[in-house]
């Protein structure tokens, strides 16, 4: 178990001290605590993905209802807003390690109850909601803890980038692993395996990370709910932070349209399952490739310079759908749209600089909740629009409307940029006070 005194070799260096040869992900893995967080992230993520797949199969097997089976997936997104808003205060009120371990144990407990033969379908869906409500708290706390482990400079940015790459890769690997497990085990048997992954994640976090104090003790006066809502109001009231948060939220809301409508579009252009699979994989491939390139080849300054141009242009490739392209051209457009997400690497740095340390856990929990919720909203709106318009027009329209919205938001972010990065210093609504970073 690590001691409370950090090893000097594990102390992260500032981005300005990082030589060009060390711009890759190697220095991040040199930090011992990050290795534990990375391994725990991989295990818990695989647990969530395999649980989703196995639970969907289990619910369908018990009910024979496609609606309830689909609802099992939907319940993985809907509770994010509730958990991320009402329980965000947990991320700052309690020590990060305790929160992360507790979240993993709650998930392990929920999936353990799922495997009991007497658990009704309603109970399975309720437990799925609990796991989903815990997820934004876990993710937000882990994001804030990364700033403690890696510092607020370039190592933090690369650490966040690496976790995103793993997330994209693990989604594909997780569904593949889930399929293999379901080929040799029953759905309940596969869920038992996920309980083990959550327990292993909890053990890694407990034994592999330091026990740091809470960022905020809540001064003993407010309730957890009150602190969560107050933190959300404070974060969203700051013009700079609000603009950055929206820049995280809006592009994914529009870019999910081709994913949500992939099957109808494949039917519209008359291609089969192989082409559909190629199109589904194209966007994650573009995102992973862009993250790897920006994270390893570009300096922190260059990453910062591409944030606004990449965000503004990232949705434009979707407009190619207006010409009803074939499989290859569609896949290329999706790879380019995925590569547009490279703006997030530099945006991570801006966000951690803008948010005070005492609010960091709540801000990052809210960030996660909003991102997942708006992606769900984007999928729903795309499906609704496709009831009345041709699929290719809906996707192209999502690209055009999204590009306009993001461009307006980019202009707002430029106006609130601090001195040295943009036109003028960041401001708070109704005040001239500059918000310091944590």
From TrEMBL:
It is a multi-pass membrane protein. Residues 1-21 are annotated as: Disordered. It holds the Pfam family MFS_1. It comes from the Bacteria. InterPro entries: MFS (IPR011701), MFS_trans_sf (IPR036259). The chain crosses the membrane at residues 42-62, 68-87, 99-119, 162-184, 190-207, 243-263, 269-293, 305-323, 329-351, 363-385, 391-411. Coiled coil: none annotated. Keywords: Cell membrane, Membrane, Transmembrane, Transmembrane helix. It is found in: Cell membrane. The keyword Membrane applies. This is MFS transporter.
